[in-house]
Amino acid sequence: MDKAMSNKGVIMLYIFPALFLLLALIYIPIVQTGYFGLMKWNGMGSKEFIGLTNYSRLVQDSLFWSSAYHSFLLALFSVLSLVGYLMISVVLAGKIKGADILRKIYLIPMLLASVAIAQLWMKIYHPTNGILNSMLMSIGIEEPPMWLADPNLALFAIFIPIIWQYAGFYILIYYAALKNIPESLIEAARIDGATAWDIAWKIKIPLIMNVIKVTIVLAVVGSLKYFDLIYIMTNGGPNGASEVMASYMYGHAFRGFDFGYASAIGFFLLVICLVITWIIRKATAVKEEIQY
Amino acid sequence: MRKEIVENHEPAAPPTQPVKKKQVRKNEVRSSNGFGYKIGLALIYLLLGVVAVFQIFPLVWLFLFSLKNNQEVFELSPFAIPTNPKWENYVNVWTEGNISQYFLNSVLYTASSVILTVILASMVTFAITRMKWRLSSLVLGLFMVGLMIPIHSTLIPLFSTFSSLGLIDHPLSLILTYTAFNLPITIMILFGFYQVLPREVEEAAIMDGASIHRIFFQVTLPMTAPVMATAAIINMIYNWNEFVFVNTFISSDNFKTLTVGIQNFIGQYMTDWGAIGATLMISIIPILLAFLFLSNRIVEGISAGSVKG
Amino acid sequence: MGKKAHTLLVAMLAVFMVVMAGCSSSNEATGDSGSNGEKTIKFMHLWPTGSAKQHNLITSDIIAEFEEENPGIKVETEVLENEQYKNKIKVLSSSNDLPDVGVTWAAGYLQPFVEGELFAPLDEVLNDGLQDSFVAGTTEAYAINDQTYGLPLELNIAPVYYNKAIFEEYGLEVPETYEEFQEIVKTLTDNGVAPIALGNKDRWTGSLWYMYFADRFGGPEVLTSAINREGTFEDPALVSAAEEIQKLVDNNAFNRGFNGLSNDEGKSEFMNGKAAMYMMGTWELPNYTTNEDVPQEFRDSIGFFKFPTVEGGKGDVDSFVGGPGVGLFVAENSDVQEESKAFVKFFVEKWGERAVTEAGVIPATKVDTASVDLPDMYIDILNELNNASNLTLFADVQMSATVAETHLNLIQSLFGKEVTPEDFAKQHEDALSRE
């Protein structure tokens, strides 16, 4: 059996097509991005090699660090939101009436293109006739917040649609994972007198721990390189209050004609993601040892 | 790590047969004297209902949005029904440009890259979690790095790659790019499931002398149908709504996708929001249907899998 | 086992081949038929059929005409919306793969393309007598080191539009001086009407207001010379202009939450009659004249006035913020450069008259107001253009891309009162001197 399962030819055959695409279409760009990061280049004409100048500029660039801080905050909130999604999924995957239709409804926003979501939330946050402020004014608040226009609120106001946008994504994954748990395990626990709460905490969640870890990595990496709604809804503003790393990079590459620096940001973003993923994996691995 | 989990299952694995009676009794006890339980259930439903309303209202909003003109989009409250619904937005969208061609292209690109991605990713995950070789964790790591690169820093390198391959303005550039960019996330999702998937069936099949390909195609793939459906849904949504790569790699109108239909109505000085709403509504229908279909597979697949298991 | 692996591999290859074949066969249908001696000009523009129907129509007509007059030359178009267009041009220029003819913007946007030797000089086209048909000063915005790299298609100025109905209701008159303007703002806010519609998320919208103050305080040269480094951004006039912006903000002159609203959202405050004034380029004119989607009553109630003068300021009332909008370029490495130049020339010649009558675009070429039938507002604007003492090109277009980003962010901070007028000027000065 071991021999069959370590057949080099078969392994090659299974790995190669995907690996080839990965190397050709993702690693080549990564390497090139790293290379452009060493250049002074406005995206056209000749490049000039300037060594690590772009990177040292990056380290001292306070605007970059504030956008990085915003990205980290987003990652943190995204991970926290997973708790809520997990709870909803546990309830949905339990045997309650209407779970099937509810589950489908919950995933609908995920199908919408970012353009649509952005338009919707801009209508919600509109300072004078938006849904939110109309409600606030109708309960007697005369000067409701200006949400996306307020530098102190813009970042958090925009986190809500971003996190909400991915609700369907995580619920979908958790739901499938929970449904994958053999029915027999849960029945056995029920027979032993475990409550629904116990079953969720002591059986279901530990059993899908691997999936949860994957979603944590996805949430963190996805947040660190997040771009779409920020770009459409606030464009990083007002005055950088909602700038994140990817939108900062985009600004330099496609608005500021500073492709060398933008590439350095892109490459640095990759390094940050790698380090954080490594930390997450280490941290969750330790937990595992305690658990078992 | 893998082994531990499997071992962890086993002690918990139940004596399956002689339980039914006990279970019925437990249920009765709980439902008869559980007044608090009923309140709790009602609360849960209330909460779930509120969330459901939140999740469905974007679709209602979008529909109303698609019936407005620019004036009404900004002037009326988002849920106001326009006095003169602008059904002509839909007519406008259908007759403007090449929409049926875009539609076909969207379906073609999305379907081929979803199938390609899910199969390739399953093969990789199978090889990583089921087969024994030294570099498996390195390869997994390589794929994970693929998650971390922001697409805007790949545009220029990818363009020159495809340009040198002569694939610019060729649908293959999109299908391959979508596949490559979705492989990492698909593998990650599959990976979480493969790790907890019981191995007994596969091991039994090996004992019976089945070849690896047989095991993969006839045992593992059917067992993972639910997670493949999950991954397919996610892939499908990403590919369907993607436009940055389309705009960058494709220049012929014949090869563009539905997202172009949206941009058609964005102008330098004027944007026709109602028409954008109508295009979005039209483009959500096929993906909604595919989603409902695949989403049923998640449950069906499980019951099929558990019968076998 | 090994055999089966091979079968699988062969099967996958077969699928791949089928896909390839399928794709390439559909490719043939559209591929350029360069084999029979025909030449193809690739033309990229940003007028999609949906949002710029008239522009698109005129463009296709001109192309058809050109192809008819020049047998053997085909013009192939690719259309992208503004934002995507700019991104694609960027990617294409990085691999020196620009279309033969495309759309560009003036001054600061143009500079890197010229330095990278991507655009061809068009002086020979202009010297053929074409120069005379342009409004004076328009092609100059496309000139770098005395060579012209783009032929402008549009010319815009930014007047202040106002709602006559609202003005009448509160007994207001068009302001001649800035004091009168301030009075108007006060009357309107006292009556709970938002005086000025502004969507400053897009930032260049607020920049227009700043530019007018700079001009009225310091005269037409002060901002331009600060940008081209003959002067300084810490000129007192430029600081006063910034102070004046913040005074307007303090007096609630702009609609609520303007810094979080897009131009489209800000504009809607004016379009639905909630705000009394709106400053924007003349590309908005169709909304007040010919656009059937806008209620007739509203269109009839809109007028415009010139930004008033400030007391003791050096600027005069006939100086405008504005200038040429998009123009056409020809790629330096084009295989069909001669044909492309001929096409660009042909396009510019045909564009002007039709653009103004059918698409409501004020062209950069001269318009004979006597011979074309135009709404009154157009005639008035064209007359103002003829009498203009000066046109100051939009600041973010004048500046290099990096400085423009700084400028736009600072504008947003200035309006949001997160930066003092002095710091505003100083940070501009720093950014400019770093170039």
From TrEMBL, chain A:
Pfam families: BPD_transp_1. It comes from the Bacteria. Signal peptide: none annotated. Residues 68-280 form the ABC transmembrane type-1 domain. One of its GO terms (biological process) is transmembrane transport. The chain crosses the membrane at residues 12-30, 72-93, 105-122, 153-177, 207-227, 259-280. It is a multi-pass membrane protein. The keyword Ubl conjugation does not apply. Keywords: Cell membrane, Membrane, Transmembrane, Transmembrane helix, Transport. One of its GO terms (cellular component) is plasma membrane. It is found in: Cell membrane. PROSITE patterns: ABC_TM1. Belongs to the binding-protein-dependent transport system permease family. This is Sugar ABC transporter permease. It comes from Jeotgalibacillus proteolyticus.
From TrEMBL, chain B:
Residues 103-294 form the ABC transmembrane type-1 domain. GO terms for cellular component: plasma membrane. It is a multi-pass membrane protein. PANTHER family: ABC TRANSPORTER PERMEASE PROTEIN MG189-RELATED-RELATED, SN-GLYCEROL-3-PHOSPHATE TRANSPORT SYSTEM PERMEASE PROTEIN UGPE. Its main location: membrane. It comes from the Bacteria. It is found in: Cell membrane. InterPro entries: MetI-like, MetI-like_sf. Pfam families: BPD_transp_1. Residues 1-23 are annotated as: Disordered. This is Sugar ABC transporter permease. Keywords: Cell membrane, Membrane, Transmembrane, Transmembrane helix, Transport. One of its GO terms (biological process) is transmembrane transport. Belongs to the binding-protein-dependent transport system permease family. It comes from Jeotgalibacillus proteolyticus. Gene3D superfamilies: MetI-like. The chain crosses the membrane at residues 39-64, 107-128, 135-160, 172-194, 215-238, 273-294. Residues 1-10 have a biased composition (Basic and acidic residues).
UniProtKB/TrEMBL annotation, chain C:
Coiled coil: none annotated. The keyword Signal applies. The keyword Heme does not apply. Residues 1-21 form the signal peptide. Keywords: Signal. This is ABC transporter substrate-binding protein. It comes from Jeotgalibacillus proteolyticus.
